[in-house]
């Protein structure tokens, strides 16, 4: 079997993770409660809630990133399948994170930028699933192409988040 290197895929995981290093532990439930008590959150409240979720996700995703790092150069069909399964699992985890972020109500007037940020990230998740399929098939050319697309999409999402003021969600560092 031809050797397919997936070491260059690891940056995808770093970009996909929300990143950063903040000790905030606020939960989305607190935002819902605040909204129930008097309206939509402020931008600062939204940022605090979203960044807390991204920090939590980063912590939860650490083991998946480590498993992929441990599987740097799959050389057998079985190892390629294992790597593809890990990427697929990671995409599922990212989908759960996007769902949790979508549950947060954006501040009035910020709905479009928040939707754009989340939609861009969700597009990256879809591409990550395609990348998992390419890894599973061992198609080196498709892996390279999708890797570039995934990185571009997650970079774009990070840029939108940073521009809005999100630090954890916009850092792109795992």
How many helices? 7
Question: What is the distance, rounded to the nearest whole angstrom, between the alpha carbons of the first and last residues?
Answer: 32 Å
Largest sheet: none
Strand content: under 5%
Total strands: the figure is 0
* Helix-and-strand structural type: mainly alpha
Shape, principal axes of CA atoms: elongated
Explain this structure.
There is one protein chain. With 174 residues, this protein is mostly helical. 74% of the residues lie in helices and 0% in strands. The chain has helices at residues 10-16, 28-38, 43-70, 77-102, 111-137, 140-164, 168-171. Helix 4 (77-102) runs antiparallel to helix 5 and helix 5 (111-137) runs antiparallel to helix 6. The longest helix has 28 residues, at 43-70. The radius of gyration is 17 Å and the shape is elongated. Residues 17-36 have low confidence and may be disordered.
């Amino acid at each position: 079997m031809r050797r397919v290197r997936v070491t260059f895929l690891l940056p995808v995981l770093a970009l996909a993770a929300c990143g950063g290093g903040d000790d905030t532990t606020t939960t989305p439930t607190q935002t819902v409660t605040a909204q129930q008590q008097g309206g939509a959150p402020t931008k600062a409240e939204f940022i605090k809630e979203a960044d807390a979720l991204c920090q939590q996700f980063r912590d939860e995703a650490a083991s998946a990133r480590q498993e992929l790092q441990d599987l740097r150069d799959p050389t057998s069909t079985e190892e390629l399948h294992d790597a593809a399964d890990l990427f697929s699992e990671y995409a599922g985890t990212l989908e759960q994170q996007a769902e949790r972020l979508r549950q947060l109500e954006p501040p009035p007037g910020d709905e479009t930028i928040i939707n754009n940020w989340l939609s861009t990230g969700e597009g990256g998740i879809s591409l990550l699933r395609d990348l998992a399929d390419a890894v599973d098939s061992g198609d080196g050319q498709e892996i390279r192409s999708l890797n570039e697309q995934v990185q571009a999409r997650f970079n774009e999402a990070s840029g939108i988040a940073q521009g809005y003021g999100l630090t954890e969600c916009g850092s792109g560092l795992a």
